[in-house]
Design a protein that fits this description.
This protein is α/β, with parallel strands linked by helices. It has 15 helices and seven strands. The strands form two sheets. The chain has a five-stranded mixed sheet, sandwiched between helices. A hairpin with a 7-residue loop joins strand 3 and strand 4. The chain is globular and about 85 Å long.
Length: about 375
C-alpha cells in the first residue's frame, strides 16, 4: 500500500526447507520493508499518528490519500518503527554503561549543538492505562486495570533571542538507567561546557536519585508549584469545611515561601505548630517533614535574583506532549511495547530528528 493506493509488485517467493521461513529476494533489491505498507506512507501515517488517535489518522488518510489502513496494520507499523527507536536508545545506554563515569564516558557522547549560557534539566513521571489486569483486593473475583508510569525527561534552554528550545525523551527504565539516558541527552545539548546547569524537579524519590547520580554539580531547585500543591493539600486538611480559611492559611505560607524561601516557610510552620490541637499538629508535621530534608533546594529568593526558572512549566508541557495527549485519551489502553514505541516516535518528532531517524531505515531494520 502506497501513498496513492495499492501497488502490485510481482516477486518470487522461496521457503526454507529447514525453518519454513519465507524469503522474497526482490524485497532486498527494492529495499522494501517487511510489512505491506510503503515507507513513504508509513512515515507520513506514523507522524500523524503521534498527534492523533488511530481513528483520526484513518480518517485523514482516507480524505488526503484515499488510502485505508486497519488498526492492526497501524499498530504493527507503530511497534515496528517505534520499537527500533527504543532499541536504538537502549543500545546507546548499553554502550555508555560499559564505560565508568568520568572523562572516558563523556568522550563517547558527541555534542550536537553549541552550549547555551544556562541549561535546564528536568524529569517527571506520568501514569497511563495498560491492557493488563490484576485481582482487585477490594472486590473478590473481580479484576482492575493496571496503571504504569512513563518516565519523561527534558533538557531546555533559551537562545540569544530569548526563544525557548528543548529536547525530550521517555522510557520505562529504572531511575539509574533512565538517568543515564537523560545525562546522555544533556551532554549532547552542551551540559559539560555550559556556564550554568540547573536541575529542577518535584521532590519524588526517583527524581532525586537521577539528580544525585548524574547531576550533582547542577544547581538543584524544588519545583515551586509542586511545593505549593503540598501546602494547599495541608491547608485543606486543616480546614476541610472552610475553603476560604484554607486559602488564607495557604496564602500566608506562600508569602513566607516567596519572601524568605523554604527556611522562612519552615520557621512559620514551627512557630504556629504549638497553637494547634494534636490532630492539626500531626497534619503540620507532615508538611514540616516534607520541607525539612529539601531546604537546600528551596532557596527561591536567590533563584529569582539569579533569574532562574523555578517552576516546572516546561516539564509539564513535555509530559503532556509525550504521554498525556496520546496515551491518555478516552478509553485508551496500551501494551508495554506499544506505549514505549509511541513515546519513542513522539520524542523524535518533538526533537526534530524525525527525518534523521527515518533515514536510518527503521522499518527495514525492524525485520
Amino acid at each position: 500500500m502506497g501513498l496513492n493506493g495499492p501497488v502490485l509488485i510481482r516477486r518470487a517467493r522461496y521457503r526454507c526447507s529447514k525453518t519454513g521461513r519465507m524469503v522474497f529476494p526482490l524485497d532486498a533489491i527494492l529495499d522494501l520493508p517487511a510489512c505491506e505498507v510503503s515507507v513513504s506512507l508509513a512515515r507520513r501515517a506514523l507522524r500523524l499518528g503521534t498527534l492523533t488517535s488511530f481513528a483520526g489518522l484513518q480518517e485523514e488518510l482516507l480524505v488526503q490519500h484515499n488510502v485505508r489502513l486497519t488498526d492492526s496494520t497501524l499498530d504493527l507499523l507503530m511497534q515496528a518503527a517505534g520499537g527500533v527507536a527504543e532499541r536504538d536508545r537502549q543500545a546507546e545506554m548499553d554502550r555508555l554503561e560499559k564505560v565508568p563515569m568520568g572523562l572516558h564516558r563523556e568522550e563517547l557522547v558527541p555534542r550536537e549543538r553549541s552550549a547555551p549560557k544556562r541549561l535546564y534539566i528536568s524529569c517527571d513521571g506520568v501514569t497511563y492505562r495498560t491492557r493488563y489486569r490484576e485481582c482487585d483486593p477490594d472486590r473478590v473475583g473481580e479484576q482492575r486495570l493496571i496503571y504504569q508510569e512513563m518516565k519523561a525527561g527534558t533538557v531546555f534552554w533559551q537562545d540569544e533571542r530569548e526563544h525557548w528550545h528543548k529536547q525530550v525523551l521517555a522510557g520505562r527504565d529504572g531511575p539509574e538507567r533512565f538517568g543515564l539516558s537523560l545525562w546522555n541527552l544533556a551532554v549532547r545539548c552542551g551540559m559539560l561546557i555550559a556556564p550554568e546547569v540547573i536541575f529542577i524537579s518535584d521532590g519524588g524519590t526517583w527524581c532525586n536519585t537521577v539528580a544525585e547520580m548524574y547531576f550533582k554539580d547542577a544547581t538543584r531547585i524544588l519545583d515551586w508549584y509542586h511545593l505549593s500543591e503540598h501546602i494547599w493539600e495541608t491547608g485543606r486538611q486543616l480546614y476541610p469545611q472552610d475553603e476560604k480559611a484554607a486559602g488564607r492559611w495557604v496564602n500566608k505560607c506562600l508569602t513566607h515561601l516567596h519572601d524568605s524561601s523554604g527556611i522562612g516557610l519552615l520557621r512559620h510552620l514551627e512557630r504556629s505548630r504549638p497553637c494547634r490541637v494534636a490532630g492539626e499538629q500531626a497534619i503540620l508535621d507532615g508538611l514540616i517533614g516534607y520541607v525539612c530534608p529539601r531546604l537546600a533546594i528551596t532557596d527561591y529568593v536567590d533563584y529569582r535574583a539569579a533569574g532562574y526558572v523555578i517552576g516546572s512549566g516546561m516539564m509539564e508541557s513535555t509530559c503532556k506532549q509525550l504521554v498525556t495527549q496520546r496515551l491518555k485519551g478516552t478509553g485508551m489502553q496500551w501494551s508495554e511495547a506499544g506505549a514505549v514505541a509511541m513515546t519513542g516516535l513522539i520524542a523524535h518528532r518533538i526533537n526534530r530528528t524525525w527525518d534523521r531517524f527515518w533515514a536510518s531505515r527503521p522499518l527495514q531494520r525492524a525485520a
